[in-house]
Amino acid sequence: MKRKKILPTIVFTFFIIIGVAVVGAVSAKIPDSYDDGMVTIQNNTFSVAIADTNQKRSSGLSHRSAISDKQGMFFVFDSQGDYAFWMQDMEFAIDIIWIDDEYRITHIEHQVSPESFPESFRSPAPSQYVLEVRSGIAGGLGWKVGDLVNVR
User: Can you say how many angstroms the Cα of residue 131 is from the centroid of all Cα atoms in its chain?
Assistant: First the structure.
């Protein structure tokens, strides 16, 4: 008689454990990869996530709590143009670096804060790439317009 009561309890417990595991796996935030590529400016190398689709470019670094001093996001566009960036859903300040098709810095916006949204930021010169790094990095390392950017 005790066997009949134990089996349903074991089965019920098994399904509860499986359910908790599935819910945990689905709700867990998987960290974004910052090892898609490497960007070097003035002998300073950064591990970057590549944003080369509309969906990746649209979400950018939003909804992340932070990045390290050696991480960033590298935005790739099909051709040179006038690309505006804003701080929607950002949780930390960044430096935004626009880069032309010859891999030269065309403009830098330093220490752009989340509070600046809905303001947009753009380069006065055409660009094809944009690098976002943690706030203070570009100024702290002395980056300037015309610097060569190595991407791999």
Answer: 10
